[in-house]
Specification:
- By secondary structure, the protein is an alpha/beta fold.
- The radius of gyration is 20 Å and the shape is globular.
- The chain is built from twelve helices and nine strands.
- Helix 1 runs antiparallel to helix 2.
- The protein folds into two domains: 123 residues, no CATH class; 144 residues, no CATH class.
- Strands 6-7-8-9 form a four-stranded mixed β-sheet.
- InterPro entries: DUF6310.
- Keywords: Signal.
């Protein structure tokens, strides 16, 4: 019975991991939902609060930040592919269970959950809210206080100013740029509460651009960005990962996931008439990103923010 439950669970997880997400803003939302659905099959001791907070991150980062919140007494990990055993140094650093769970493809039998899993409360609420927005977009828009404009009325703009390197030559604060009412409502910058309790990350997002809405994220094109820079139409995504301390295995996973994420963010920002900048904490993190994706060169800066 336990073996069959493990097979069913891993088939579900593999399907979530291998499904191809749509493009653009929908792709960013789809990644968050895919992570929530994937995590819903696992037992969590904090009712899934960490997962909800980190769901927009790449799966490997979510696992790194929330691994301790798993109910480890109910989960068994098996290195069925030998991948984590071969990378023995990495496995010893991050733990075999983490290595198996963070892998992009999970083999059948790698993760076995004991007993019946009831979806964690916070994860269920987030998935239910997504279903409501998906099936009733007009009602969801009314709840947010936004008004949808006809798709044909969407106009395109290019960012009119390039951002300065972090901490250098910032322009003085100016009133927010008036919103073109003919633009699609989703491109209008909407201040929203930070999704997580990571104070060091949030302080960095407020200080470095600097943020036009201190203490708030900004929702543009269906994506939560960490900051809208004062005085210019530039959206920021801040990363305060302790990248320099990661094992080689985790570095590779984080960089691959973040390159895809930053390219999506850049496209969303561009389509809504904004520039885009990704801030990372160290020069090593920036170099690893640009080694894999040289096209991100103008969009990545070093913030030196610490966690």
């Amino acid at each position: 019975m336990r073996f069959l439950a493990g097979i069913a669970l891993l088939m579900f997880l593999s399907a979530c991991a291998s499904s191809a997400p749509p493009r653009g803003a929908h792709q960013s939302r789809s990644k968050r939902i895919a992570n929530l659905q994937r995590a819903a099959a696992l037992p969590w001791r904090d009712d899934g609060q960490c997962v909800v907070r980190e769901a927009s991150q790449p799966w490997s980062v979510l696992v790194e930040r929330c691994y301790q919140s798993l109910d480890h007494d109910r989960v068994e990990f098996h290195d069925t592919t030998g991948r984590c055993t071969v990378a023995s140094a990495d496995a010893a650093t991050v733990g075999l269970g983490f290595c198996v769970l963070a892998a992009p493809e999970i083999a059948v039998g790698a993760v076995i959950v004991l007993g019946v899993v009831v979806v964690a409360v916070a994860i269920k609420e987030e998935l239910d809210a997504y279903e409501f927005r998906h099936h009733y977009p007009e009602e969801a828009g009314a709840v947010r206080g936004t008004r949808r404009a006809p798709r044909a009325a969407v106009t395109e703009r290019k960012p009119n100013l390039e951002p300065e390197p972090a901490g250098q030559g910032w322009r003085p604060p100016v009133p927010p740029v008036p919103v073109d009412r003919t633009r699609h409502a989703s491109c209008e910058p909407i201040p929203v509460k930070h999704r997580g309790g990571d104070d060091a990350h949030n302080k960095c997002a407020d200080r470095i651009p600097p943020n036009r809405y201190p203490g708030m994220d900004v929702l543009v094109g269906g994506k939560h960005f960490d900051a809208l820079q004062v005085g210019v139409r530039v959206l920021w995504e801040i990363k305060t990962d302790q990248f320099d301390t990661y094992s080689g295995f985790l570095r590779d996973q984080v960089i691959e996931d973040q390159v895809a994420e930053f390219r999506e963010d850049r496209e969303i920002a561009r389509n809504c008439g904004y520039g885009f900048v990704a801030g990372v904490s160290s020069a090593a993190h920036k170099k690893a990103l640009l080694d894999l994706a040289p096209d991100l060169e103008p969009h990545v800066v070093v913030t030196e923010c610490k966690r």
